[in-house]
From TrEMBL:
The protein's name: ABC transporter substrate-binding protein
Organism: Streptomyces aureus
InterPro entries the record matches: Bact_solute-bd_prot1, SBP, TAT_signal
PANTHER family found in the cross-reference section: ARABINOSE-BINDING PROTEIN-RELATED, DIACETYLCHITOBIOSE BINDING PROTEIN DASA
Length: 423
C-alpha cells in the first residue's frame, strides 16, 4: 500500500519526538545497550509468514534466544512487506515504534536520518563473514544501523535446452549479445527474453547498474540516474519489445505462485530471483532432474546482481536497549539466518554459510552467494521511501505506451529531486 507523503512526513518529522520513546516496557527511555539484557521488548517482522514461519520464529529461533536471555520477553508483531511502510510510519506517529524492526534494503537512510534508529557497534560488521557490498545498505552517514539476515537476488535464468537447440554455447557478455540472443531464441509463442516477470522498479534498477549507472550520488543528495545510463536501460526494454523478443503483457506474476514463463517454455531467458529454485522443485522438478536451468549475472558495462532482502535494526529509544540489541544480534547470527533462509527459500546473508547443505541443494542460492561481488542495492537516500513508489508508474508508460525513455527518466528525475529537496 502506498503511503501518503503527509503521513510519512508526520511520522518522520513532528511525530518523531514522541515516536522514538519505543514500546518496550521498562523504567528508562533510551540509553546504553551495555547493561543486562532484560525486560519486555517488541519485534516487528515482515518475514516468517504463515503457520510454519510463526512456528520457526517463536518456537525455534526465539526459543533459543530465551535460553540465552531468560530475562527477556519478546512480543512479535507480524506484517507483510506490502503493509510494512504504513505499519512503521503509523507506529512512529503514534509513539509506539517496536524495539526491534526487520525492514527492507534501502530503508535504513530514511529512518536513520531522522534518528529513529540506534547505531550499532562497528564491531558487529566483522563478527561474521559479510560481503562488503551486502553491508552497504545497513549503513548511513558512515555508521552501522542494521545487520543483514536473508537476501533476495535478481539474476537471469535460462533454459539450457533452448540454448543448445539454437547453438548458443555461453551466456551473453553484454546487451548487444543479449539482444541478439533474444531475437534468435524467439520462436512461435516463445519469448526470447522475459525481463518483466519481476517488479519493473527492480528490473530497471538491475539494468541501470549493469549499464554502469547509479541511482544517487554517494551522499544521497543528488540524482544520478538521469546521466544517460538510466535512459539507455529503459530504452533497452523498448528495443526488446520492438524486436518481438519481450512482451510486458505476457509477464507472469511471481507472487501468484503460477509456473513462470521459463518453466512452461514460453521464455528462453527470464529475469527472476533466487526463490525460483523452490518453485522449480515444487512445480517442475523434471527441469532440475534434467539439468535444464542455468543462470547468469546481467552485464553490460559491468556485472550487476540487484540484491534486496531483510535487515534487522533497533529503535533509537527502546526502553530496554540491551535486550533489543541482544535480539538484533541473535536474529543476525548464522543459525537464525540459515533457518530463515531455508523457510523462505532465500539467500543467507553470510558467506560462511556457503558450505551448508541448504545452499548446495539450491543452485540459485549457491549461484547468488558465489556472485555477491556483483551485488548492487536500491535506495541510498533519505528520500527513498517516497521515490521508490514513483518509479514503476513513471516508467511503465514508456514500456507499454508511446512515451519516450528520455521523457520518462526526465520526469522521474524531477520527482526524485523534489523528494530529496523536501528532506
Amino acid at each position: 500500500m502506498e503511503l501518503t507523503r503527509r503521513l510519512l512526513l508526520t511520522a518522520l518529522g513532528a511525530g518523531t519526538a514522541a515516536a522514538v520513546t519505543g514500546c518496550g516496557t521498562g523504567s528508562s527511555s533510551g540509553g546504553s545497550a551495555g547493561g543486562p539484557a532484560e525486560g519486555e521488548i517488541s519485534l516487528l517482522t515482515p518475514i516468517f509468514e504463515g503457520s510454519d514461519g510463526k512456528k520457526l520464529l517463536e518456537q525455534e529461533i526465539l526459543g533459543g534466544f530465551r535460553k540465552k536471555h531468560p530475562d527477556v520477553k519478546v512480543n512479535v508483531d507480524y506484517t507483510t512487506y506490502t503493509q510494512l511502510n504504513e505499519k512503521i510510519t503509523t507506529a512512529l506517529a503514534g509513539g509506539l515504534l517496536p524495539d526491534v524492526l526487520m525492514m527492507g534494503v534501502g530503508w535504513i537512510p530514511p529512518f536513520a536520518a531522522k534518528k529513529v534508529l540506534a547505531p550499532l557497534p562497528e564491531s558487529l560488521a566483522t563478527r561474521h563473514d559479510y560481503e562488503p557490498r551486502v553491508l552497504e545498505p545497513s549503513r548511513y552517514d558512515g555508521k552501522l544501523y542494521a545487520l543483514p539476515t536473508v537476501m533476495a537476488t535478481r539474476l537471469v535464468a535460462y533454459r539450457k535446452d533452448h540454448f543448445a537447440a539454437a547453438g548458443i554455447k555461453k551466456p551473453p557478455r553484454d546487451w548487444t549479445e543479449l539482444r541478439a540472443m533474444a531475437k534468435q531464441l524467439t520462436k512461435g509463442d516463445r519469448l526470447g527474453f522475459d525481463p518483466f516477470s519481476i517488479d519493473l522498479r527492480q528490473c530497471w534498477e538491475t539494468f541501470l547498474y549493469a549499464n554502469g549507472g547509479s541511482l544517487f550520488s554517494a551522499d544521497g543528495k543528488k540524482v544520478a540516474f538521469t546521466d544517460g545510463r538510466g535512459v539507455e536501460a529503459l530504452q533497452f526494454f523498448k528495443d526488446l519489445s520492438a524486436d518481438g523478443s519481450a512482451d510486458y503483457a505476457k509477464k507472469t506474476d511471481a507472487d501468484a505462485g503460477a509456473p513462470t514463463n521459463l518453466q512452461t517454455g514460453k521464455a528462453a531467458m527470464m529475469m527472476t530471483g533466487s526463490g525460483l529454485w523452490k518453485q522449480l522443485q515444487d512445480q517442475t522438478p523434471e527441469l532440475i532432474e534434467k539439468d535444464l536451468i542455468g543462470a547468469f549475472v546481467l552485464r553490460n558495462r559491468r556485472p550487476a546482481m540487484l540484491t534486496g532482502g531483510t535487515l534487522v535494526t533497533q529503535s533509537a529509544r527502546s526502553r530496554n536497549p540491551a535486550a533489543a540489541r541482544a535480539l538484533v544480534e541473535y536474529l543476525a547470527a548464522p543459525d537464525s539466518i540459515l533457518a530463515a533462509a531455508e523457510q523462505r527459500a532465500t539467500v543467507p546473508g553470510l558467506r560462511e554459510l556457503r558450505s551448508t547443505s541448504y545452499v548446495k541443494k539450491n543452485k540459485l542460492v549457491d549461484f547468488s552467494l558465489q556472485n555477491l561481488g556483483s551485488a548492487c542495492a536500491e535506495g541510498g537516500t533519505p528520500a527513498w521511501m517516497e521515490i521508490r513508489e514513483k518509479i514503476k508508474p513513471t516508467l511503465e508508460p514508456a514500456v507499454v505506451g508511446g512515451r519516450s525513455a528520455k521523457s520518462a527518466i526526465a520526469e522521474l528525475g524531477r520527482l526524485a529531486e523534489s523528494a530529496i529537496a523536501r528532506m
